[in-house]
Write a structure and sequence with these properties.
The structure holds two protein chains of two kinds. By secondary structure, chain A is an alpha+beta fold. Chain A is built from seven helices and four strands; from the N terminus they run H-H-H-H-E-H-H-E-E-E-H. Chain B starts with 24 loop residues before the first helix and ends in a 23-residue tail after the last helix. The chains are: A alpha+beta, B alpha/beta.
Chain lengths: 160, 439
Amino acid sequence: MKFSDQFETRFTEMLGHYPTPRSVLVPTLLYAQDEVGYLSDEVIGEIARRLSLTELDVRNVISYYSMLTTKPRGKYNVQVCTNIACLLRGGEELLEHCEKKLGVGHKGTTKDGLFSLEEVECIGACSWAPAVQVNYDFHENLTPEKMDGVLDDYRKKATQ
Amino acid sequence: MADLVSHPDEVRVVAKRFGMGATNIDRYLELDGYKAVQKALGMQPEAIINEVKNSGLRGRGGAGFNTGLKWSFVPKVSAKPKYILCNGDESEPGTCKDRLIFEHDPHAVIEGAMIAGLAVGAKSAYIYIRGEYRYLLEIMQKAIADAYAKGFAGKNIFGSGHDFDLYWHGGAGAYEVGEESALMESLEGKRGVPRIRPPFPAVVGLWGGPTVINNAETLASVPHILLGGAEWFAGLGTPKNGGTRLFCLSGHLNKPGVYELPMGYNLKKMIYDVGGGIPNGRKLKAVVPGGSSCPLLTADEIDLAMDFDTLMKAGSMLGSGGLVAVDDSTCMVKFALRIMKFYRHESCGWCIPCREGTDWLEKTLSRFHQGGGIKKDIDNIQYLSENMLGRTFCPLGDAAALPTISIVKKFRKEFEDHLEGKPCPFEKAGTVERLPVFA
């Protein structure tokens, strides 16, 4: 199992932050997922081994956190918030628009593997609702038309 | 990233450096940065605690506990190391203020954490930032590295002989981790399941050591208190509610945004003046005053001073400062359903009343909204909610129950309008109810 140098540097640095190695688990899982795309059996095994945990311990933690996934998803994960502040300003309509546009539902991935879609809980963009996060990037004050532009930009980015 | 707004009534304390490039440590120093911690280095720990206590600063995460008092619970002598833990897991629906603090003024959080450390005798602080805020975690990582490079953190800070270490920590998506004991579990690399209390974190916290857990806005307020004085800070707000607050205005408003207003600012004015009123010629129906866990207020209950005690007296809570305005085009059954869906998704499942309660309530509300409800269901929703109150280890159960009870009590007629197959009066005719799936 090979991670990037940046991952390894950060991992070593983080181990120095805490009195117990296990404390690095949650952020490490997310960083590993960012590199591999999802938490594969191999990734889980590797992280469990490094932290002297059982794979079950690691899976138990993964299942708690909503950003962590053991299934592959699209290159760009489109996360549409429909919680109250977004709901009032068109979050559900935006989600429906994305479903139509991408042809997939909640946690679905497009055939070309470019996009996956997810209905998510509050992402902390309430005053700029409705809002969407694509991977880690925020897109705010959206309308269906603006959303088309956002998706087109990612499509272009993928071909570059 | 996120747009900044302004209003003439704003009193900028925490937001003073927003938009001024203070993520850069040299710029932060020009703007009075790291002066407060140097002042604290010359003070006795008790004097720091008293200053914060007297300022009337209360926890900005939502519970509203006096910060200085919280610090004073930490034992002076401890065999295990003491810790400061900054709660930046901002996830309460309606709340987006800590995001701006991390984005514009990360060093204020660092400085506040250092001052807290000096006050309670802790030698290290962890700054926990929710996983979705990756760009903010990166800003914080750089801020911490810059503080070390300047000799403000690490060994012998500011040449004082004191050591103080700072660490960043990222989450991975969990509302419940915002609860202080779950936050510690998460930082220790576990599921964010709450701990039984007592013992309280001030005595037994991270890795068994005494731990002070403060919200990011709370910590960012501390340096200003030390520089401006407790009396000045207390005078900005109302009695026992010192200072200002970042209010996150969202929902049906003409000018949503994050505004810093004095504690005790009138809620009605906040909606109609600061927030620019209700768009599209609509009327206000309800207000979520401080994040989704607070009981809702109706449009005629909002002539109130926005401080912890007044809101409590009015039967609600000031919470996390997330104000959501709801207009008269909104179906309150659907609104209650959306809130419950959130809490059902976020419940960790540890306590049965919360795990089962949120699930039953979501199912009942969902059926109700689709016209499948019977009269008995209305009372059942209230009964189930009331039986969750106070019966869980952490307040997530209460957070789910409180808004639901208030909606059933205050908008009962809307529930009756949905009874026995009647179509939702607020949905466009012919639109099929979508049942979102959260796997």
